[in-house]
Amino acid sequence: PLVLGIETSCDETGVGLVSGGVLLGDALASSMDEHARFGGVVPEVAARAHLEAMAPMVRTALQRAEVDLADVTAVAVTAGPGLSPALQVGLAAGKAYALAAGVPLYAVHHLAGHAAVDVLDHGPLPERCVALIVSGGHTSLLGVGDLARDEVVHLGDTVDDAAGEAFDKVARLIGLPYPGGPAIDRAAREGDPHAIAFPRPLTGPSDPPWTFSFSGLKTAVARWVEAHDGPIPIPDVAASFQEAVADTLARKAVAACLDQGADTLLMVGGVAANSRVRGLVEERCAAAGLTLRVPPIRLCTDNGAMIAALGDLLVRADVEPDPLDVAADPRARLTGALLHGAGHGA
Ligand code: ATP
Ligand code: FE
Ligand code: MG
After folding, report:
1. Are 100 and 21 spatial neighbours (Cβ–Cβ below 8 Å)?
2. Whose CA is nearest to atom 3 of ligand 1?
3. Rounded-to-10 torsion of CA 83, 84, 87, 91
4. ipTM of model
5. Which residue's alpha carbon is nearest to atom 1 within ligand 1?
6. pTM of the model
7. What is the pLDDT of residues 168-211, one digit of tens each?
8. What are the pLDDT digits (tens) for 233-271?
9. How many Å separate Cα 105 from the centre of its chain?
10. What's the CA-to-centroid distance between 135 and ligand 3, angstroms?
11. Is the CB of 329 under 6 A from ligand 1?
12. What is d(CA 342, CA 346) in angstroms, rounded to the nearest whole number?
């Protein structure tokens, strides 16, 4: 197969071409800068940017892969979850390319795509694993079986801020630039991670084990900064906050693996780039006898290759494609069945 993947759930227009588990080429455009002055992604602005970037990104990806649209044997596109106007553009484009090329269409779930992308660099996933998806938009633990057989379940999510969002908000609080994650990572190198005992949210014995909450941690940092006399010790605050996030993520992810009987943890999302998150998760996985898989950072964030990788798995497993009238689902849930099929009664 040769699968064209299209991703437009948020502010990235991603296109990828995957064949038999190999990434042949991809292209990515982002409208991030256009949203900066609004303080968050504006759905209509993102949709318009997707509309403008779509054809150029498809052309670029085809060129990089050195293939033609006529060589494509299936199209996979994100149908949800995500921003409705943004999803509509990608789905409409996916349908148009499928129709033009006369090939089947697969409408897929964004989070399943995040999990699927690791096959491109590290080969097939084990029979069972847990995926920790940590970015500016998500903090989710997934139980992952055979992606081609819809075996993905949501174990838990954040009830408020995503981990990346917490990095961004805390950075702003202590005067570091946006995006906050890399800035905090850098500042923390000079700091003491045990200088300030920030809370590890929802890690108590009676707390829901797979649920995250980062807004209280952000408030704890704000309170500490307010109460502190004199100049803020930025490196110590950064290191201590980062340690609290890393410790919380590592504890819950490792516990989820043990609970699910999974010997592999998959970590993706922009926050997977954080040096302490990676370091601590790696350490805890090793101590628990778990294998940690992290895709290359470039493929950890939203991209088209992940959707093509998932589509490629579906095609190779002979999964029924979706009808061309399949609908986008901005609130798509993983219920053990992938979104694939969800638009028509699954
Ligand atoms: P999605 O739609 O998948 O949630 P997103 O655009 O919201 O995507 P990503 O692009 O995956 O998120 O990642 C961006 C987030 O990752 C930002 O919140 C950023 O602060 C965070 N991040 C990036 N690098 C680091 C780092 N080194 N440490 C901590 N956080 C980081
Ligand atoms: Fe994403
Ligand atoms: Mg992004």
Report:
1. no
2. 302
3. 170
4. 0.97
5. 137
6. 0.93
7. 999 999 999 888 999 999 999 999 999 999 999 999 999 999 99
8. 999 999 999 999 999 999 999 999 999 999 999 999 999
9. 22
10. 8
11. no
12. 5
